[in-house]
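Q: Two folds, back to back.
A: First:
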Amino acid sequence: MTSPGISRQASFTGLYAFFATIIMLFGAFTSAMVVRRGASKDWVGVPRSQLLWVNTGVLALSSIAAEKARRDLLNGHRMRFNIGWAAATLLGAGFVAGQFAVWQHLRHSGVYINSYPGSAFFYVGTVAHALHLAGGWIAMFYLMVRALRLQLGPGRRTAVDVTAVYWHFLGVLWLYLLWLFWFWGNWD
């Protein structure tokens, strides 16, 4: 049987290895986008949606709530953890719902994935981020249900820490994607 410290260390090592693959994926995405944009005269940006900024705020609030909840759990405040973690989980669902709303708005505006290169990169980048976020959200939801059922023992605290760090990472990745689309002129 492994000690909790070794299991915790292995969990974070696995998380950091996963971060490396995500960074490589989005690095390749960035490279492809920059090269494709620079190598053509047919680049058209995606219409700006103010909802993306609202979604960013929702994701930031979710990350803040997750971190506060994680610290509450560390300090033995289980009820505050349950409330904070549930809030973080619901806000995370709100972010994904907001992204769907952005995609629907674009679709209703006649902007599809195959409309032009800029729209393809926007959809692929935001959907790839949403898929990674969905994995983190499932972990958050699972931990929320366990916590509300009072089944979140000391062994699950590592899962809370790993999930919170992953969630923060996805928040930073989202800020990077916004910067990338803004800086490289993907928006009209």
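A: Second:
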Amino acid sequence: MTITRSRKTPATTPRAKKVDTTPEQFIAAAETPPPASPEPLPRTAVASREAEALALVDSFLPWSAGAGILPLPGVDMALIIGVQLRMLAKLAELYGVPFKEQAAKSLVATLMASLVQNTVLGSLAYAFKFTPVLGPLLGIAGLPAVAAAGTFALGKVFITHLEAGGTFLEFDPQKVQAHFRAEFEKSRSGA
């Protein structure tokens, strides 16, 4: 009696192909910079993109001010930051830069915290919300203006950074705090 074995059928999961690269080749490929863009955008395209970015920032100002009206301390700031993150995501899309949400959250929180701490209007508007009865009314009067001006300043700072070819991972909030405060003061004064 002869015993015959049946041939095994191939497994349903495909097997990975062996790649003949050394660790050095893999590392060298990862360290190679991406190819440069063929040619820079013409000056008129850059100006129109910047104008489009400013219009985009302007469209988020009412949303930011509306979030500042809420009489709930903490919730209002979370909503303001949410509006600002959405604005930054749209700016990243406009400039063709990958949006890194975690990095953007950290950057926005750092800049807005410095604004609330280092400006009298920002500190008073936010502090009033914690005062019983009259406080929320006084906070409602001041925080929407601070939120809108802060959102505008944040947009201007990021537009400048993205126009220079920067990304979210390269953005350093410590280096732009003076520019951020100057833009905040300009937008608050209506300039």
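Q: And?
A: The CA atoms of residues 60 and 87 lie 7 Å apart.
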